[in-house]
Amino acid sequence: MKPPLRIAMWSGPRNISTAMMRAWENRGDCCVSDEPLYAHYLAATGLDHPGRAQVIAAGETDWRKVVAALAGPVPGGARLWYQKHMTHHLLPGMALDWIDGLHNVLLIRDPREVVASYVKSRATVTATDIGVLRQVELLERLESRGRTTPIIDAGDFLRAPEAHLRALCDHLGIAFTARMLQWPPGPRASDGPWAPYWYARVLQSTGFEPPAAPGIALSGAHADVAEACLPAYRLLHGRRMRPQA
After folding, report:
1. Quick one: 40 exposed, middle or buried, by C-beta within 10 A (0-12, 13-18, 19+)?
2. CA pair distance 115, 93, nearest whole angstrom
3. Span 139-158, mean pLDDT?
4. Which of 34, 72, 108, 134 lies deepest, with the highest CB count within 10 Å?
């Protein structure tokens, strides 16, 4: 039998990462993990996020134990393990060699859109909070080790989800299934305890929604954060997947 395929989707917050997790879980042959490093991140940084106490109580705060579990038996014996990760959860001082054993994918979104969405749930935001700078560092690390790392832009993806999923499945050497395009609404046992604070739209969703119309207006510190992240985003965007719809 083939060894299980462990897929790590590295995103920033307020992307389509939870909807993407729904798509993979709905395949029927894939288990999912929702931000397994989040409890460690909050405990180590002391940051005040919505539901902080619940996240820490429900999760593992030692990143080494998290990494060991991610390398262990696949839950339920599934042949695919989709891991939804946030790049800003990779804190300084954490070893990163475990990432080399995963099939890594980067999920990006225009930082202006990310910031505008993020501040609806948390009043303050920094460039570090939205993960795109860390995505560039992760890409450079993987490429220095000869790893091909697909990059998916959320806006492009939502205009052609099937084409992108087919291309990603082809890259991973697995079959695409139309079950990835639609799912039942509502919560999942796999959702993190932060779902009530961040997942309102995806809990109502039954599939990928069209991209939002442009017209975001940021000002002050919020605009500064987005501007600081734009060069990194544009670098990644220039190397994104471009499948034929």
Report:
1. buried
2. 27
3. 95
4. 108
